[in-house]
Amino acid sequence: MTPMTILITGGGRGIGAATALAVARRGFDVVINYQRDAASAEGVAEQLRSLGRRAFTVQADVGDERQVLAMFERLDAEAGRLAGLVNNAGIVAMKARLDEMDVARWRRMMDTNVIGTLLCSREAVRRMSIRHGGAGGAIVNVSSIAAVLGGPAMYVDYAASKGAIDTFTIGLARELAAEGVRVNAVRPGIIDTDIHAASGDRARPQKSAELIPMQRPGRADEVAAAIAWLLSDEASYTTGALMDVSGGR
Ligand code: NAP
């Protein structure tokens, strides 16, 4: 059987890296996209190869159409059949109120979190949808519980970008439901990864325990398990779902 491949954007670190391991353990080959940190991405690929999976890394800024097209061309040439896409690459910015933010920050945020997800999804649909001669597949978008909470006095722009992802997930799921492609999202709460350093508080996960009903931040592998399930055939009747992985927050 042709090996089935999952593309994970931002798969070199944090939730993306944990997802790469989780899907590799379920038998998928993995393509790991990264933007800057080649060493981390290569380290994850090595781990997957040691599990007996095929894995390679591709550098691309998901917000840049030319780079995304080149990434998918490389997949076409070197990877097995694309069975799934995880739109995980995402950024936050320094904690701020709206009246302190500039447009450059919003453009960076929307380019990565929203345009990146749309672009990669478009290319995946062109390959996976039976309408385009594909064999079906699954997309999982990594949203955030911030889409529900709004991120006040922290990052309302980030929260809005994730709100867009939720709406996109529902719409694309319905658009593709009869074409063999399922589309779902996970909404992580506060997860212990490097991303918090970019909002100016590396220790936020530990400091936030009392805000979380479960009284602790989540781990990347706990989000990865939900993503891997949504990608798998066990989730064969699940599409358009927004799954909170947030410790009850
Ligand atoms: P992270 O540890 O900072 O990792 C982010 C990953 O995204 C990195 O691999 C990074 O690549 C990649 N990336 C960033 N911009 C990119 C771009 N333009 N093109 C390609 N790759 C890019 O973050 P994380 O916490 O794992 O977050 C992953 C996702 O979960 C994000 O969408 C985030 O919004 C969401 N999320 C996280 C939390 C949380 O508390 N951690 C909560 C809710 C939602 P490099 O390694 O090359 O830098």
From TrEMBL:
Q: Would I find Oxidoreductase among this entry's keywords?
A: yes
InterPro entries the record matches: KR_dom (IPR057326), NAD(P)-bd_dom_sf (IPR036291), Sc_DH/Rdtase_CS (IPR020904), SDR_fam (IPR002347)
Indicate whether Cell division appears among the record's keywords.
no
Could you tell me the keywords of this UniProt record?
A: Oxidoreductase
User: Any signal peptide, and if so, which residues?
Assistant: none
Q: Which Pfam families match?
A: adh_short_C2
Q: What positions does the domain Ketoreductase occupy?
A: 4-193
* Membership in a protein family: Belongs to the short-chain dehydrogenases/reductases (SDR) family.
Name of this chain's protein: SDR family oxidoreductase
Species per Swiss-Prot/TrEMBL record:
Pseudaquabacterium terrae
